[in-house]
Amino acid sequence: MTTATFGTPTIAARLDRLPASNFFKRLVILISLGGLFEFYDLFMTGYIGAGLIGAKIYSSTTPNPFDLGGFASFAGASFAGMWIGTLIFSWVSDRFGRRAAFTYSLLWYSVATLVMAFMSTAVWIDVWRLLAGIGVGVQLITIDAYITEITPKQSRGRYIQLTQAVTYCAVPVVALVARFAIPQVILGLDGWRWVAIVGSLGALVVWFIRARLPESPRWLETHGHQAEAELVMSRMEEAVRAETGRELPPPQPLPDEAAATKGAWTEIFSPAYRPRTIMLSIFNFFQTIGFYGFAAWVPVLLLSEGITVTKSLTYVLIIALLNPFGPLIAYSFFAEKIERKWQIVGLALIIAMCGLIWSQMREAAGIIILGGLITLANNAFSGAFHAYQAELYPTRIRAQAVGFAYSWSRFSSIFIGFAIAAALARYGVTGVFVIIAIAMVIVACVIGFFGPKTNNVRLEQLSR
Q: Which residues contact 332 (CB under 8 A, 6 or more apart)?
């Protein structure tokens, strides 16, 4: 292990003293372009549900909730794949680097989604959806680790919200494509297939993005690639210096800051990190119930209330247009001004309250306004917790640790679709949102009582 002596600036010390600048905005947006396809693929689940049901491949509910002919099996396959990706393959990002994992996971799920678009039975659609989900799971973890490591401590929360704002632009895109494609048959293919084909286009832009991305200098230094880390860091410093026209402030290294060391997966269960791992695992198990319970099921929930496919997709499209604005509001007003843990707590409670009210809405105005509020809160919540969980572990195990904790959200998502389908059949939309509200109250309590504060603190200091 190489350790920085006091007064010798590490990569972390040099990076964290850089001012916020357009250089970082451009870098984050470039990474986010890859994330656009990830989010398109992720949120495609709910939007093509109406098309898959309309094509008689799936039904909205079944007598047996685990019947592969039910839409819940499609949603479950998606999240099962993401669970495998986050739990089993998150080590790829720690072992081979953020840029490599980012590139190849994007290519993986783009190809799998394209193949899925030409399947005709529920079983084979589920299989390829599961395979695509593995790539999405790796990508989810990699982007969080990547951006957390390459941005300064005083602004990393804002930059995670910025990437969320960019990637959530995919949601209105998939809603728009679904709105006009799903009711149609185009060139002999059902509209839902075209929605999936559009989502596979990420494979065409992956190499363009890759060539313009640097590796995380923190990752390089941690893995002993000092010369490469120095080259990347020097280029970043020069870019910021040229942009601001000022000399950079001096680095301020921590006295015991480690420059290079190897981590092991078992470290996430060590006394230093076990409480955080337990806290984040419980948090993630329940947060996805609230988040995807609405986002992935809203078209089907509307259909269950007797609203036609065309009207439900129109309502969802209007709501979807608000998706980028939740993170943008957080980026502009409170991402760094309000402590991250309290952002998560407050937004979780807002989601619970608005969801219960939304379940009572039957008119277009109420459905759209309350649905819009839930969407804004959901996506600002997403940006806050994605930044938060990546801050709580050291670079050497960041992706694996976050992958393990986040995998519980994918695990619960496998079954939440079946639970929602059963609650919908027995108790209606109100029953669904009671489940969502309970989940979000648990989320607020877990983070509120046990979560540490992270705003404007060096990653290396948080992970001591």
A: none
Radius of gyration of the chain (CA): 22
Neighbours of 446 (CB within 10 A): 23
- Cα-flanking dihedrals φ and ψ of residue 231, to 5°? -65, -50
Count Cβ atoms below 10 Å from residue 333 Cβ, excluding itself: 11
pLDDT, tens digit (0-9, with 9 covering 90-100), for 239-284: 999 999 889 999 887 765 554 566 778 899 999 999 999 999 999 9
Res 306 pLDDT > 70: no
Distance between CA 290 and CA 283 in Å, rounded?
11
Q: How far is CA 458 from CA 100, 376, 410, in A?
A: 25, 29, 29
CATH code of 13-241+262-462, in short, is 1.20.1250.20
Pairing of strands 185-186, 189-190: antiparallel
Share of the chain above pLDDT 70, in %: 90
Q: Which two tokens stand for residue 99?
A: 């840029």
Q: Distance (Å, rounded) from C-alpha 262 to C-alpha 223?
A: 7
DSSP three-state, residue 172: helix
- pTM of the predicted structure, to 2 decimals: 0.86
53: three-class secondary structure by DSSP: helix
Report the run of H or E that residue 141 belongs to, with start and end.
Answer: helix 122-150
Span 54-89, pLDDT tens digits: 888 877 666 565 667 677 788 788 888 999 999 999
- What value, to the nearest 5°, has the Cα angle with vertex 348 and ends 330 and 361? 100
